[in-house]
Design a protein that fits this description.
Number of helices: 1
Pfam families: LSM
Organism: Peromyscus maniculatus bairdii
Order of helices and strands: HEEE
GO molecular function, one term: RNA binding
Number of strands: 3
Subcellular location: Nucleus
Structural class: mainly beta
Strand order of the largest sheet: 1-2-3
Distance between the termini: 45 Å
Keywords: mRNA processing, mRNA splicing, Nucleus, Ribonucleoprotein, RNA-binding, Spliceosome
């Protein structure tokens, strides 16, 4: 039997998990291995992220 969110509260869908981190400082590693630090403001359906106060 597959677990669902009512029986396992620690299981989230990927977009639900990202939604929990809005407003947090994040460290993002790009495909080019460049690291970007910033405050996570939001994302769209394609998981394009919006960050502010970014440092490289």
């Amino acid at each position: 039997m597959a677990a669902n969110r009512t029986t396992n509260p620690w299981q989230f869908l990927p977009l639900e998990l990202m939604d929990k981190y809005i407003g947090s400082r994040v460290d993002t590693v790009m495909e080019s291995d460049k690291e970007v630090f910033g405050t996570f403001l939001g994302f769209d359906d394609f998981v394009n992220m919006v960050l502010e106060d970014v440092t490289v």
